[in-house]
Amino acid sequence: MKVKRIIECVPNFSEGRDLSVIKSIENSISAISGVKLLNVDPGSSTNRTVITFAGDPDAVIEAAFQAIKTASELIDMSKHKGEHPRMGATDVCPLIPISGISMAETVSYAKKLAERVGNELKIPVYLYEAASSLDYRRNLADIRSGEYEGLAEKMKLEEWAPDFGPKFFQSKSGASVIGARDFLIAYNVNLNTKSVTLANEVAFDIRENGRVIKDPITNKSVKNEKGEIIRSAGKCKSVKAIGWYIDEYQQAQVSMNLTDMNVTSLHTAFEECKKAAESYGLLVTGSELVGLVPKSAMIEAGLYFLNKQKRSLGVSEEELIQIAIQSMGLNSISNFDPNTRIIENMIEEKNNPLVQMSLSTFALETASERPAPGGGSVSAYVASLSASLGTMVANLTAHKKGYEEKFDFFSKYALEGQGLMKNLLVLVDEDTNAFNGIINAFRLPKSSDEEKSIRKKAIRKATEYAIEVPMKTMEQAEACLPLLEQMILHGNPNSISDAGVGALCIKAAVQGAGLNVLINASSLDKVESKEKYILKAKEIERRVILKCDELYQHILAGIK
């Protein structure tokens, strides 16, 4: 299945107080078809608004252009004041690849947008990050150095001529920085102080760029043989940080940009801030995320803090996210709603109506006169319950007195069980979708030879998919067996019957899904394809029945 191409755009506008201006910029984005507005985050003290939207690449750059145009008309930089560094009405406009598109392709879109802004709006534009063709202009801080107030003189220098647009200073719009980059997490940690000096001390300790080394006698910066200022490296790579005071919060913050969460994670930045703050007699009182955050960052944070608490990791994604929110104090300033702040929750289309149903509604839907959902979806659901039961036993055993030495063993299996359950739940809806695909293929017109040919190919393709889905159910169900086996052999004896029911669920699910494979495979034209699927299904069924019967007998022997 072809992955939908999606890019995200996170422009920063130099207006955070006039709600009518912010709304006008927001409307110019929402008016473009194929774009979804994800978040609008204005800041009064910074006098800056971060807007996040995503969608089809062409639609996104059209929306970005319209937003930059609106900002240039409504924002006068000659009158702008704010806490955050800035150089233009649209200060920075990054494009971020989300799915189905490479960084190289995203760079081409960034250059296309930058050229249009420069040519049509007559705004000086600098390219940065992956879109930059000059190493010394990759870093946003270097381009923005001197800010708006120093821009007129800076643009006179040949090395700071803009990439697109006029080569001279524009007092009203300033200049814009456009580029392509990986996902950046804008993250602020709250301190129990109003001191910007102390907040900066913490920032210097953690940011990759560290702090300038100074001579203890002269207090002047120490330089190397080349005349370059020497710095001591900070704790966190791929992190930029400064300290500032936010009047509306009545406290100082360490404001960070995590430019590569694979290098320094969200929870690592938080923990390092805590350590550094304590060394100055400070306490971290919470934190805030600006804009959206990837789900993986929150999941990893939840796992980290859960492990730190010596609790089993086998809990749902929703619970992990709540643990991350609570542990990092993300609700300390304003409510953090995962449905509106996690990017996947905002972008992903919900195509799982069956899984979203209550148990009674699912049973009634299955009992209706409609042919789907049917045995395939039920088999996938039964298999998911086997993973649920195995996970439950693992979680219970991990926290049972007397099993402390095996905590990591059971926690690992509980986490694995959560993944298996999630995969199988996807197949509940996917099996019904596959069946509907066959029905739709048979409904195609067949008047002409060409239509008959198209219809035949569509039926074959839909049938093969309707075989592959229950085959996946069989494979995923079998993958649950090691979890159930370990819980039956080594888990809490009081829960052995629960693990046994899980094994019986696997057996039923595999045989049920196997029937679907056999029925759909029998309609294939090619004998070799038919036999391939049938032989594979029968082999999985043979292995599963053998193992499940073995485990069942083990349980019975223990009961006797």
List keywords for this structure.
560 residues; alpha+beta; Formiminotransferase-cyclodeaminase, Chain B, domain 1; Four Helix Bundle (Hemerythrin (Met), subunit A); 3 domains; four-stranded antiparallel beta sheet; 13 strands; 14% strand; globular
General description of the model:
With 560 residues, the chain is of the alpha+beta class. It folds into 3 domains: 6-180, 2-Layer Sandwich (Formiminotransferase-cyclodeaminase, Chain B, domain 1), CATH 3.30.990; 185-207 and 237-330, Formiminotransferase, C-terminal subdomain (Alpha-Beta Plaits); 359-559, Formiminotetrahydrofolate cyclodeaminase monomer, up-and-down helical bundle (Four Helix Bundle (Hemerythrin (Met), subunit A)), CATH 1.20.120.680. The protein has helices at residues 19-30, 57-74, 103-121, 140-144, 151-154, 196-206, 266-279, 295-308, 317-327, 338-341, 343-347, 359-367, 375-398, 407-442, 449-479, 481-490, 496-521, 527-559; strands at residues 6-9, 12-13, 35-43, 48-55, 90-99, 125-129, 176-180, 185-191, 211-212, 231-232, 239-246, 251-258, 284-290. A hairpin with a 4-residue loop joins strand 3 and strand 4. Helix 6 crosses helix 7 (266-279) and helix 16 packs antiparallel against helix 17. It is globular. The two termini are 51 Å apart. The mean pLDDT is 93.
